Every structure is written in C-alpha cells, then in structure tokens.
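not sure who needs this but someone in the group chat was asking about Protein GrpE from Actinobacillus delphinicola so here u go. i didnt clean anything up, its just raw.
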Amino acid sequence: MSTKNNPVHEEVTATEDVEKDLPEQETQEQEMTESDPLADAIERVQELEEQLAEAAKKEQDILLRSRAEIDNIRRRATQDVEKAHKFALEKFAKDLLESIDNLERALAVPTDEMAENVRAIIDGVELTLKGLLKTVENYGIKAVGEVGESFNPELHHAIKQEQVEGMDSNKITNVLQKGYTLNGRVIRPAMVMISA
C-alpha cells in the first residue's frame, strides 16, 4: 500500500507541519513583544503630537476670538465717545428751545395792529430770533414741522385731526409748536394738527 493515498499518513504529515510552524509563531510573538515598548513609545509620541497640535489650534482660536472682542470693545467705545460729543448739547438745546418759542410768539402778532414804535421792537425781536436760529443750526439743531408736510409720527405729535378742503389726508394743517432735532435725533416732536 502506498503512503501517498493513505489518509492517516496525510493527517500525520499535516500535524507535523503545524508543530513545525508553532515554534516560528512563538518566536515572532516574542519578537513583537520585545519590540512593543518601541512601538508603544512611537504611538505615545504620535498621540502627544496630536494633542499638542489640537492645543495649539485651540490657543489660536482663543487668540483670534480675544482680538475680535477687543476690536468690538474699541469700536463700541469709539461710538460711545462720538455719541457723547454729538449729543452733549441735548439738555442745553431743550432749554434754549423755550426762548425760541417765546420769540416766535412775540412775532405772531398781526402787523396791521402794530403801532409804528412797536414795529421797531418787533424788528429787533425778528433779528434776535434769526440770529438764535442760525446759532443753534450751526450746532446741528434743526426745526421740523411745516404746514403742508406729510405727517411723520417720528417727528410730529398730532394734537387734532380736522377736515380741510383741498388738502390730502395726513398733511400738517397747523403747527402749534415746532419740533426740533439734534443731529438727526428728535429732541422735541412738533405739535401739529393734521388733515383727515
């Protein structure tokens, strides 16, 4: 009988081959175990480098955010200073408006009722009013509220609404007290009557 076709012989040969391979595998495992400290060290160095790169990235992000916040604070401070300069005269302007109103009331007297000597006083009041209005205009104070203008609730305060022939609705028909703005900000709305 031939040993080549014998299944038992083939099994024994395969077992011997596996036993021969076992010492080689053990040797390779021992070599891997011996080289593991180096591989572990390399792996650890890579982990630390990744952590370092991540920390540097976070630090860069924090730095950029801090710079942006500082720029925002500077911009806000600059705007606050500009507003303080621009609107520092607001209280003074409000107090001054009463004098302007009184001068305008003095001039509201019809001219046909005036005596000649009163006319000289009226002319002086007119010149005073013009000079005062020019002075306050130089500082950014402007009058708002003229007859015929469209009603604007941001600039005008409607006291009464009335029917007026030939006038569109929401137009100013009468100005009871002029309004004023300081550099575009309303310091007193105009009291007006409007058409219905």
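also The mean pLDDT is 81. if thats useful
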